[in-house]
Amino acid sequence: MKKILVVGGVAGGASFSARARRVSEKSQIIMFDRGAFVSFANCGLPYYVGNVIKEEENLIVATPELFKNRFNIEVRLRSEVLKVDRQMKEIEVKELETGRVYRESYDALVLAPGAAPIRPPLPGIDLEGIFALRTIPDSRRIREWIKTKKVSRAAIVGGGFIGLEMAENLVREGLEVSIVEMLPQVMPPLDAEMVEPVHAHLREKGVILSLGDGVEKFEKNTDGSLAVCTKSGKRVNAELVILSIGVRPETKLAVDAGLEIGERGGIRVDDQMRTSDPAIWAVGDAVEVRDVVTGQWTVIPLAGPANRQGRVAADAVFGRPSWFRGIQGTAVCGIFDMTVAMTGASEKTLLRNKIPFQKIYLHPGHHAGYYPDARPIDMKLLFNPDNGRILGAQAVGFEGVEKRIDVIAMALQKSGTVYDLEEAELCYAPQYGAAKDPVNVSGMIAANALRGDAPVMQWADALKEGVTLLDVRDPADYLAAHAEGALNIPLNDLRSRLTEIPGHKKVGVYCQVGQRAYYAVRVLRQNGMDAYNLSGGFKTGAAVKPSPAMPV
Ligand code: FAD
User: Are 136 and 56 in contact (CB under 8 A)?
Assistant: First the structure.
């Protein structure tokens, strides 16, 4: 019989506790949370603010009564853990309602205190009307503020997942929404060229974007509204400000207890979630773990890993052989009717870590083109140039986006290669996919490049190297817009017009999205020419804007 205390009762803490009970019927398990809820759906909070989730109670995944009755787990709410006494194996707890402070002993302690929203010490940060969103009471306060103050304009500081979800929900509530983001793009984990359609979609939905502009201070206007004052001198006026510039691991308890803290500011754990004290485990947003692609320590606050870590820690506490495989940042975000998803490393992360990679772009339909309403998915796949191992993938579109990233995520976790994607057997009926699913196509393009059948060239390199650019689209498309200096020989005429292409130079071939260019590359290569497929075709060229000469 073990006595296990758990600090924090949401994603990591609650999944730990429930799993621990399934593993050991005999242990005593007590879960503490300083909030008024356990096991609530943080991820649903933006949709509660936006009234998509209508009832607050729908955010509660499990109540203290359910934990007691179903799992025989005791939950102590409004109970803040103040201190960990490692020598005595005790924690100090404050009952927030009564102020009573008491001690509780443990055989095993699990820290799952999550992360706290970052509040930069900017002038005016404490003005009324500036909120962060982390808990049910936060969302309740935002809803009440919108109602009582008759809010018509909201400014969101930070264009990450939560900022974008809040933008959608506040627009749905009829507010005029501005996003102020220090970086030149929203969705920082994505590579810049992949975000362009997201920016366009947000603007189409009426969201005002101030990108590449940090906040300098907040001020109160004479009419009582707030002004977000940016470094470039802009004033974004609003009655409501949402701060969503990221979170910081909650490490106070761990630091005070002298537990090892890692280089990224999270509690350092081993692959069984054990801290530097063998009687203490830690899980969720508070810890740092290994990135499966880069091998570096990282903090990525996501609910899936927090849940999995909770399960691993529960097994480990009872000596079961479970290990956390590391994190790969698989994530999805809905932005109005658009979906953005990613897994593994981005190009900028690979560059930062000096990890060699090759990349391809593609824009397949989300299902067979012959079936009505196929919509394109913009995809990017990053892989090892020697062995084809998948390093990362990103996708943006309207349908079937996260399904493709989920498949690639699984392949990545199993150290899969682009050859595995090429061969993956996936669901197909016309309304769902294609006989060559976008996942297969991404693998085929990458594998063709690695085998040398159809090497790819990036737009930036094509323009830099002064290669012959060959546009194999129809003349009407070419006349509408083309890369400067490109020859136009439509694919169907290619075999009869080969002599028009200078034979001594590299040939960078493009069509609209890369498929006709692939056929052309095969023709040219078999005729002895050094031909390359310009990755992602003209569509990608327009997004990466390799030079001002690209007429986009
Ligand atoms: P938390 O869920 O934050 O739980 C920590 C708990 O510990 C809190 O209840 C806190 O009160 C308690 N606590 C802290 N210190 C103490 C103490 N000293 N004593 C007692 N109790 C304490 N992730 C996704 O994967 N997908 C999404 O769509 C998504 N959307 C999100 C939307 C929002 C608005 C937010 C805020 C987060 C979202 N996340 C999403 C992130 C996800 O919710 C977190 O990664 C996950 O909840 C982390 O779980 P955790 O158990 O580590 O921490």
Answer: yes
